[in-house]
Amino acid sequence: MTSDDPFQVMMAERYAIVAKLTELNSAHLSREGRRAGVEFEMERCRENIAAAPTPELKAQLSELEREHSEVIAQARRIEAEREALIEQLEDIVNRLNAPHGDTQT
Questions:
Q1: Helices and strands in the chain, H and E counts
Q2: Which UniProt keywords apply (predicted)?
Q3: What's the pTM value of the predicted model, to 2 decimals?
């Protein structure tokens, strides 16, 4: 259903942004959980290396460090996207709250 009513259009935009923010928040929480898990695994691996260094443990630590960097990069991308969506949402709210007739700006 399409509408030429600016209010309806803005509300549809608002709902779409809120849905995307919900999705991003879920992804962010998942990444944070994974980040914490990788940090825990890295610490355990470092302890094992300190006790008995092996090439396998050093390779495992390198892989965990790579994964940690990827998770942090993903979290940064998610945060940037969330901030952009929040700005869009604020713009829509400002337009919705604007004096009647100023919904086209």
A1: 2, 0
A2: Coiled coil
A3: 0.77
